[in-house]
Predict the structure.
Amino acid sequence: MPLLHRELDSGPLFNLPEGRRRRDEGISRVEKSGGDAATRWRDSAREWVRERATKPGEFNGDDLRLSIGGPPHSPNAMGGIWIWAKRQGLIHYVGHRPRQCASAHKQMIGVYVGAAFAQEGSS
């Protein structure tokens, strides 16, 4: 059977709607798990993105971490910030680059610009 039709324990491989549902469920679970500290961090991170999106130039999670610190409860909370900002129409994804933090071992990180500064045709 071709790879695209193979079934896994979790359902069909490459089921995009199911993947998105699980992603959103995971984001919700992470946001609820951190208590007051996580809520304060999320609110601060959202405010930072709102403000940064009004200025020209690229930015990413390293910039956010340098400004307000990383999530206090789970590094997965960072992804929820970018998904929220994209859904709000605040930012546009422009690519990836290696993280600057030595402990990240050059892990790739998303790069964004404010929606007002996005080039025609960017996502």
About this structure: The two ends are 34 Å apart (CA to CA). DSSP finds four helices and five strands in the chain.
